[in-house]
Each structure stands twice: as structure tokens, then as C-alpha cells.
Design goal:
15 helices, Beta-lactamase, eight-stranded mixed beta sheet, Methane Monooxygenase Hydroxylase, Chain G, domain 1, alpha+beta, single chain, globular
Length: 395
């Protein structure tokens, strides 16, 4: 794993030892049961095989402390040329045109983008330029409906604003009409009640861009990915990414054909590819660095993206942007403050401060077309990691 080994070791920064960087090593060195991790790897490979696989391809990384004990790729980054609705099957590419999955294959992160938007917001809270309980209308008075209903920054970060799950921005003819639709959108639910909504990070994006004078892609690059050395994490286009969907109506909301390296989410696409809720592309090794930085209290190597108290604010229940203790995708890791998220394209990450572990499972489950999703494989993988910790304790 060159991308991991290149970041090994401890470095001096300002005369003090910096946070340890990730390195690839054995499960035993990570304090994990190798038998459970072998099961994890085999099960991920099984997800990409058979007549109707869970995903065309997948990448899994798992580790504890600074050690990456599993870094495995399975299946195909690109397997299908298109989807055939008459047969309900993907049209297979010839073998010599398929692209095998590798550990360093970039993925469309989909809603994992929300985690980076949340970190960017908490960075502004740390700097004092954003108030967590401030009203959105104080920063965006032209967003009349949100202002009139007293929507707060905390409500955006915890999905308790009452905003509906999404708007059909992709059907608007131009940027002005998309902006007008978002500005006029009022909560439909009771403020303070949880309703997962892509509109929350979209409004948060507007807040961040207003108070900093910089676009979200610049905030993420300068505040998170560049300091952490996450060179493969960026908003698209990303030509070498794993393919996603043959996006066509009626199963999709736009007619765009087979997508690879272009954002899958229709609203993020309509907004130019940079959106608070979707649009980022990244790799397993880069996301491992992101997890490690948060597990280490906001630092990685010589870089610091948040202070430990702000990481606590970010990850403490109910989580700011992060979901906390959700067994439906965290399996047996849930229960003691595990935090993470999933993405519609098949992506997920979980980090658990109680055991100092992380799990990244990236898959292109929507290739060649979207279907009712199952998070059972995510929960199963997380349970394997949890049992790998407990297995070493029994030993």
C-alpha cells in the first residue's frame, strides 16, 4: 500500500511529536483478531460475485490506532457498458475493457460529502466566525423562509430544521431559478424533530460561503484535505473513479447515461458538482487518514484541522453531520459513541473512539443502476471489526 506506507512514522512539528501517521501492518500489531478480519475480507469479496452481486466492486479498509490492518479491493471499478431495462440486467463490457478495482480507486462519495461540510462548519465555530445556535437568517437574510422560521445552524447540522428531504433543483432551467427555489423553501416538519434532508447541508454551504467569502470546494481543500495530505480527495470531475449508474428516467431523475467521474447525485450535478450534500470523490486510503485525524483528536502528522474539544462537539450524540450509534450500518460497533455515515452510491465509513477503530467500505452498488439498498453488508463488516477487537481481549 504505497499511499499508506508513504505516510508512516512520527514527525516533529514545533519541537513536539506530531500525531502518528497511518501504516500498513498485521492485525496482531493493530490489536485485532486476524481470524475475524479474514472473514471480513472474504465476505467483501463475496459481495462482488454471483449473478446479482451487491456491488460490481468494493474496497474495504479497517484499522485500529495508527495501523491499517485490512486494505483490500474486490471486483470491478467498471463492469457494465449500460443497463438493459428489457432484461433487467447490466450489459457486460468485454473482459479487456473492464476496469478492475484497486485499493486506490476513487469513489463518488455521495452523502459522505456531508461529513466534510460539517467539519468545515465546525472549523468556523472554532474560529468564532459561526455561532452554532445562531439563526441562519442572520447570515442569509435573503433565505426568507428559513429566516422567518428561525432555523439555526445546529438544526442544519443535526437534521432537525424541519426541511423536507430534497427539492427538484435538477428540474430548474437555470441557476437563478434553483437559487430562488432554495431561498423560498420553508420547513414542512416541526423544528427540533429529526428529518434527514439534503437541504440542510445545502443551506449550510451557503452560510459558510457567505461568512468566509470562499466556495465550499476551496474550504474543504484548504481546511481539510490539503493539511491532511488527502491528495486524492476533491470535488469532481474525477475521470478515474469507479463507475456508478446508467442514469436514465424513469428510475433516475435525469437522462445522463453511464456515469464515471461525474457526480451521481442529480441535485449536486445541477449545482455544478460542488454541493454541501454530495459531490466529493475520494479513496479508501484518504478516508482512512480522515478517520485517523478525528480519532486522534483532530490531528494527523504535523497537521491539526480541529481541536479535541471541537472533535467532541462534532462526534458527541446526536452528532453534527455524523450519525452516531446506528446499528443498521454500524453493526456491533454501535453502542458506545461510534460515528459515521453512508452514501447512496454504496459508500460508508464508521469510526469508534471507544475502541480506536475505523472501517471504510466503498462500493459502487448503483452500477449499472440504482436499486432498493441494503445496508446489511455494511453492518456485517462493522460487526466483524467489533468482534476482532473483542477477540483479542478474550485471547
Amino acid at each position: 500500500m504505497p499511499s499508506l506506507e508513504a505516510t508512516c512514522g512520527r514527525e516533529h512539528a514545533g519541537g513536539e511529536l506530531s500525531a502518528p501517521r497511518l501504516r500498513g501492518d498485521t492485525p496482531e500489531r493493530a490489536g485485532l483478531d486476524p481470524a475475524e478480519l479474514r472473514h471480513l475480507v472474504r465476505e467483501v469479496h463475496d459481495l462482488t460475485t454471483g449473478e446479482h452481486p451487491w456491488a460490481a466492486g468494493a474496497v474495504v479498509l479497517a484499522g485500529r490506532g495508527p495501523v491499517v490492518a485490512v486494505a483490500e479491493a474486490a471486483g470491478w471499478a467498471v463492469r457494465y457498458a449500460s443497463y438493459d431495462p428489457a432484461t433487467d440486467r447490466g450489459v457486460e463490457l468485454p473482459a479487456d475493457r473492464r476496469v478492475p478495482m484497486t485499493v486506490d480507486t476513487p469513489f463518488d462519495l455521495a452523502s459522505l460529502t456531508k461529513l466534510f461540510t460539517a467539519v468545515a462548519a465546525v472549523q468556523q465555530i472554532e474560529r468564532g466566525t459561526l455561532g452554532i445556535d445562531a439563526r441562519v437568517g442572520a447570515y442569509l437574510p435573503e433565505f426568507r423562509a428559513a429566516a422567518a422560521h428561525g432555523v439555526t445552524v445546529r438544526q442544519l447540522l443535526t437534521h432537525t430544521s424541519g426541511l423536507r428531504p430534497e427539492l427538484p433543483l435538477y428540474d430548474c432551467p437555470d441557476a437563478a431559478s434553483r437559487s430562488a427555489m432554495l431561498r423560498a423553501e420553508a420547513p414542512v416538519g416541526v423544528p427540533g424533530t429529526y428529518t434527514y434532508s439534503d437541504l440542510n447541508p445545502l443551506l449550510l454551504q451557503h452560510v459558510l460561503e457567505r461568512i468566509t467569502g470562499r466556495t465550499l470546494d476551496v474550504l474543504v481543500r484548504d481546511g481539510i484535505t490539503r493539511p491532511l495530505g488527502m491528495a486524492s480527495t476533491r470535488f469532481g470531475p474525477c475521470p478515474g473513479a469507479a463507475a456508478t449508474e446508467d442514469q436514465r428516467r424513469p428510475w433516475a431523475k435525469a437522462d445522463r447515461g453511464m456515469l464515471r467521474g461525474e457526480v451521481h447525485d442529480e441535485n449536486a450535478w445541477a449545482l455544478g458538482g460542488v454541493a454541501g450534500h454530495a459531490g466529493l470523490f475520494s479513496t479508501g486510503p484518504d478516508l482512512a487518514v480522515f478517520c485517523r485525524a478525528l480519532l486522534a483528536g483532530g490531528s494527523y502528522g504535523p497537521a491539526r484541522i480541529l481541536g479535541p474539544d471541537l472533535v467532541d462537539l462534532l462526534l458527541a450524540p446526536p452528532g453534527l453531520g455524523f450519525a452516531v450509534d446506528q446499528p443498521w450500518f454500524m453493526g456491533e460497533l454501535a453502542g458506545h459513541g461510534a460515528a459515521g455515515h453512508t452514501g447512496f452510491t454504496g459508500t460508508s465509513l464508521t469510526l469508534d473512539r471507544a475502541t480506536d477503530t475505523f472501517l471504510i467500505l466503498l462500493a459502487n452498488t448503483v452500477h449499472p443502476r440504482r436499486r432498493p439498498s441494503s445496508s446489511t453488508p455494511r453492518a456485517t463488516a462493522a460487526t466483524r471489526l467489533s468482534r476482532a477487537v473483542r477477540g483479542t481481549r478474550r485471547a
